């Protein structure tokens, strides 16, 4: 299974009054991880948008396990959990420096044409990208 990793230094602005990372920041980190995965595979999401396609989130799930705090470094691990004709599910683990799990999650995406928001298969836009996702998908 191909897993991409991205380290993120936790900034003070990402924490709440208790000094704990605010829950919505994990969403941002998941997006950063997803972008890194795509780059690591040699593809370019911004290029898809330039061609007139978007990849909206259909579903998102996060399970919080152990709080993270300002000054720590989070490692975001991202992989393709599954891929079908019209949906891609990404998996995530966000880890503390000692390897303990801070959060896990998944996000489900589809590809749509920007002008009409109709689903469009990745295979018709970029067959190499499609083949790579099918090759590395966990399930």
From TrEMBL:
Domain of life: Bacteria
Entry's Gene Ontology molecular function annotations: fatty acyl-CoA hydrolase activity
Coiled coil: none
Entries under CDD domains matching the protein: 4HBT
Matches recorded under Gene3D superfamilies: Hotdog Thioesterase
Signal keyword on record: no
Keywords annotated in UniProt: Hydrolase
Family, per entry: Belongs to the 4-hydroxybenzoyl-CoA thioesterase family.
Protein name in the entry: Acyl-CoA thioesterase
Source species: Lysinibacillus telephonicus
Organism taxonomic ancestry: Bacteria, Bacillati, Bacillota, Bacilli, Bacillales
